[in-house]
């Protein structure tokens, strides 16, 4: 990874990231998925990307998480605001929950600490239990993933991401398996717990992006390009009001190819 001149961060947890002139192709494919793509993630703010299935959202996230397969060829530059490597400063929540079937819920949440330090400290375990209670899983600490519903598993994966306390958080459809009420509550919780973190969130839900994003982008086309969309007034997590509903409708029309122009 290339790094650039540092620009001062105001918060200890803040990390700005810039992707510059990214060109990326999977092996065997003639047309690149991205060509000369630029994206700036502002330190301590939430960025949401919407886009039709297959346009490249997950691939961009995996690039930032350094999780792309070997056969992907890419060129371009990644800059961090403090000129240090992103390594060990990224929490990544994949589309699949990736829970380990032989570990219970609590141990799954604490797994990264066990990997690094041999075991999770009491403070980490207490924090894990507190977070699991906050997402409504206080009764499931010792359940195995196979005993959970899809939405419960997704909440465990969310807690596992939150507890890592990283400055850059990458989340790929983190609330997609949740019912509407739980989704709304967990959007609020994530916004509270990840305030001052730099977040890149992929979602198919325009309402979610409009509630949570300080910055909102639409990915479309091949090669994929990012178009900035306007966000509603106010600080995330925003309430669902008339302005948000109008923007939501406009995004849906744009995604379905009907919209003339995003307002
Ligand atoms: N390992 C791979 N090898 C070849 N092509 C791939 C690979 N991974 C992804 N692709 C292709 O790259 C394109 C973008 O995939 P990606 O998963 O980034 O899309 P996405 O926008 O996240 O989609 P979704 O919203 O359905 O999750 C798709 O056409 C996909 O088939």
Describe this structure in words.
By secondary structure, the chain is an alpha/beta fold. The protein has a domain of 67 residues. The chain has eight helices and nine strands. The protein has a six-stranded mixed sheet, sandwiched between helices. The protein has a three-stranded antiparallel sheet with strand order 2-1-4, with no helix packed on it. β8 and β9 form a beta hairpin. α7 packs across α8. It is globular, with a radius of gyration of 19 Å. The structure holds adenosine-5'-triphosphate. Adenosine-5'-triphosphate binds next to α1. Pfam families: ABC_tran.
In short:
The protein has 263 residues and is α/β, with parallel strands linked by helices. 31% of the residues lie in helices and 22% in strands.
Question: What does the largest sheet look like?
Answer: 6 strands, mixed
Detail the poorly predicted runs: 1-10
Give the percentage of residues in beta strands: 15-25%
Return the average pLDDT rounded to an integer.
91
Radius of gyration: 19 Å
Terminus-to-terminus distance:
37 Å
Number of helices: 8
Shape: globular
């Amino acid at each position: 990874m290339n790094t650039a001149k540092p620009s001062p961060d105001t918060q200890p947890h803040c990390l700005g990231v810039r992707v510059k002139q990214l060109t990326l192709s999977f092996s065997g494919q003639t047309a690149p998925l991205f060509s000369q793509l630029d994206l700036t993630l502002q330190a301590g703010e939430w960025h949401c990307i919407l886009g039709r299935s297959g346009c490249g959202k997950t691939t961009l996230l995996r690039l930032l998480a350094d999780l792309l397969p070997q056969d992907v060829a890419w060129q371009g530059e990644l800059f961090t605001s403090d000129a240090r490597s992103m390594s060990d400063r990224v929490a990544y929540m994949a589309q699949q929950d990736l829970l380990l079937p032989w570990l219970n819920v609590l141990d799954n949440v604490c797994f990264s600490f066990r990997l690094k330090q041999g075991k999770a400290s009491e403070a980490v375990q207490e924090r894990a239990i507190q977070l699991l209670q906050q997402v409504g899983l206080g009764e499931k600490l010792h359940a195995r993933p196979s005993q959970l519903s899809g939405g419960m598993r997704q909440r465990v994966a969310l807690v596992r991401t939150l507890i890592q306390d990283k400055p850059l958080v990458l989340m790929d459809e983190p609330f997609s398996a949740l019912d509407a009420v739980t989704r709304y509550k967990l959007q609020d919780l994530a916004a509270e717990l990840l305030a001052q973190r730099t977040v890149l969130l992929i979602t198919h839900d325009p309402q979610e992006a409009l509630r949570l994003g300080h910055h909102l982008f639409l990915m479309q086309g091949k090669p994929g390009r990012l178009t900035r969309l306007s966000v509603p007034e106010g600080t995330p997590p925003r309430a669902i009001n008339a302005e948000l509903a109008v923007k939501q409708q406009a995004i849906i029309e744009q995604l379905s190819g009907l919209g003339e122009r995003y307002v």
